[in-house]
Amino acid sequence: METTQQKESVSDAQTAQEKETREQEREQLLTRLYARSAALVDADSGRVLLGKEEHVMRPMASTTKIMTCILALEKGNPKDLVTASANAVAQPKVHLGMHEGEAFYLGDLLYSLMLESHNDSAVAIAEHLAGSVPQFARWMNEKAEEIGCTEAHFVTPNGLDGEDVGGVHSISAADLAKIMSYCVLRSPKAAEFLAITQMPAYSFSDAEGKGNFSCSNHNAFLQMMDGVISGKTGFTGDAGYCYVGALQSEDRTFVVALLACGWPNNKNYKWTDTRKLMEYGMAHYRYAEVWKIPELSKIPVENGVSQNGLFGKAAVEVEIKGKESPGKILVGDDDVAEEKTEVPEKLDAPVKSGTPVGQITYLLNGEKWGSCQAVVKETVRRRTFTWIAMKMCEMFYQFNF
């Protein structure tokens, strides 16, 4: 008969084998990607679930325009009149074909920007909002920093290759995904951003009603998988084909960012890579409550006044202040969640109610995910000679009277 110890040994071996198999699956998937840099990200937390050179900064071509668009939505008004400058008109193809001095409504130009990826529209928008392209680039970099990006440097609003004193126009796949996550979930203009990037086609005229302009959405991935909610393509000679897209499945939002995903004639590689990464995310990640609420025992208080009388030993209850745990997070098969409780074995009186005395740290795969404080629930006075004398007098009085 097989013993319990033998059963546990077999189970551990099977678990180890399954983990190794999953690791091989991940490695094979990453090896088969065409993109030089790729990131599969949980949009809610910004956590990179799977990555290939995801922190290497590379040119990002017209995926840049997601930043241009969200800044325009947050800082501008769709009814603003945008007048084309000589600089905007001079931008290379792909362009709307505007003429110097021609005016357009900002809201119309955002469709030109995101559906057809027009370079002249991007510059016109930037100059209208910030007064100049360099100033708009400063806004882009400030916004990237605000979002939490550390591997991004913007020089142009349209993604054409550029360089300034700060460096080359470039970003990492991880930070590009972080910006898209902000655009579709956290920006106060997320709904407007999604409405623009999901529009199949859009037509408009200039502000005077002259000329007719038509835009078609070039994000073919919108029709390739169920749940796709947004995306932006890009290409330059230095950047190659790039893509960033978002997909919602059940209560999960995944973002995939690809940089240097082939050069002509490899324009469809980005769709293949995106599908592989999205399918991997949906197959292996689910929301779960992975952290336990720690049970905190009473802490002895040396030289403290006890509720049990003169000779009782003082102890104080401890409670968690703030969130008891970070809540549900998106986790995979091999993610390891832990709680690290740091509370002293004893305290020294006096202790005031609400005083922090420790910390609970929540770890995911060894990295800090969140924390909360442990605080004392009640005040404990210090047991002094004066207090002892008073108590002894009280006892003497009660005993004699």
UniProtKB/TrEMBL annotation:
GO terms for molecular function: serine-type D-Ala-D-Ala carboxypeptidase activity. It comes from Coprococcus comes. It comes from the Bacteria. This is serine-type D-Ala-D-Ala carboxypeptidase. Residues 333-381 form the Peptidase S11 D-Ala-D-Ala carboxypeptidase A C-terminal domain. It catalyses: Preferential cleavage: (Ac)2-L-Lys-D-Ala-|-D-Ala. Also transpeptidation of peptidyl-alanyl moieties that are N-acyl substituents of D-alanine. Residues 1-13 have a biased composition (Polar residues). One of its GO terms (biological process) is proteolysis. It is an enzyme of class 3 (hydrolase). Its EC number is 3.4.16.4. Pathway: Cell wall biogenesis; peptidoglycan biosynthesis. Substrate binds at residue 232. PANTHER family: D-ALANYL-D-ALANINE CARBOXYPEPTIDASE, D-ALANYL-D-ALANINE CARBOXYPEPTIDASE DACB. Removes C-terminal D-alanyl residues from sugar-peptide cell wall precursors. Signal peptide: none annotated. Residues 1-25 are annotated as: Disordered. The lineage of its organism: Bacteria, Bacillati, Bacillota, Clostridia, Lachnospirales.
